[in-house]
Amino acid sequence: MPSQEAASTPLPVVITTGEPAGIGPELTLMLAERDALPPHSVAVGDITLLAERAKALGLRVETVACQPGEPLPEGPGVLPVWPVALNAPCLPGVLNPANAAYVIATLALAVRACQNGHAAAITTAPLHKGVIIDGGFASFTGHTEWLRDACGVDEVVMMLATDSALHAQAPGWLGAADLRVALVTTHLPLRAVADAITPERLTRISHILASDLSRQFGIPKPRIAVCGLNPHAGEDGHLGREELEIISPTLEALRAQGLDIRGPYPADTLFTPRHLAEVDAVLAMYHDQGLAVLKYAGFGNAANITLGLPLVRTSVDHGTALDLAGTGKASPASLGVAIRLARRLADQRAATGTTSHL
Ligand SMILES: NC(=O)c1ccc[n+]([C@@H]2O[C@H](COP(=O)([O-])OP(=O)(O)OC[C@H]3O[C@@H](n4cnc5c(N)ncnc54)[C@H](O)[C@@H]3O)[C@@H](O)[C@H]2O)c1
Ligand SMILES: N[C@H](C(=O)O)[C@H](O)COP(=O)(O)O
User: What are phi and psi of 183, to 5 degrees?
Assistant: First the structure.
């Protein structure tokens, strides 16, 4: 069988279908039924589960098994699947730690496919962090950190952005509801956040953010606004000293290195149109400081991208929604945004001669 590379067919975007009890499988099927997957997309997951979920929801999708490196089956309503078998039967909405290793196996297959030159990018449907940990992966905290380690890099950056901000090809904001928000710390208990904000981490994160905004999003000299950690950015040290002792001196040093990085600003008023109009991205100190605003502005129509990886990885802006799993009521819009972004970034890399291979 000729390899895809030999036939110069674009390499696939791999969609890991995520937690089997969650909404990931059905969202992937819904996009396939609507013919809303870009060409050269392939799902990874249990093919029986996908077929059964399609049948239960009345989705007219034909799941067709194939292997990495083989040509993808095509046709209306066809969903190519690289199969990974569940470890235990699965009902929608019911978590089972026995399937944690299955979820990890789907991710490992997707990374391996990028490493072997059989895939161009990965889009991840949501997984459930708690059940992965309960299933024996004690140090697991999320895709972002798992992919960092799987790819052997020291640092990555989680950035979420609204659809138009992800696909904009020029600097500047398109509208008040468009946001790009990156995080200094990701999946940490709040108690641990302050200690994790060090000059070294802030420096590494800022450089990755500036460089990927430029390299992947075509913003030549990104303008980044940085949130303070404490209320009112520390109120001159009266409400916390991290701004004075860590954040401000680090930003000063980064400016001296040529980055357009501003702040630290009080986080409560930074996310207002006048301030946002002057920058290309906001760097928040912790998860809910940045993502609560992003999800208020664009939940369901935004996506997550991991910056600083040697491969393209995008994801949804939502979780496993166990309350909706198996009902067909969850929206596949964010998964669609994430897959389209992955396809565009992969095509961009191919066109510029950079590769997604590790
Ligand atoms: N990319 C990822 O893998 C990812 C992202 C976020 C959360 N999670 C994980 O998901 C699990 C559940 O997290 P949570 O409860 O905080 O958030 P959640 O996003 O799963 O659910 C929050 C609310 O949003 C609704 N919702 C979520 N997705 C929706 C969709 N596509 N359409 C319509 N409504 C939707 C849910 O029904 C629920 O009311 C956690 O384990 C979390 O860590 C994973
Ligand atoms: N922080 C993400 C969010 O709130 O949407 C989410 O937990 C996913 O993280 P990973 O992509 O690292 O799994």
Answer: -120, 140
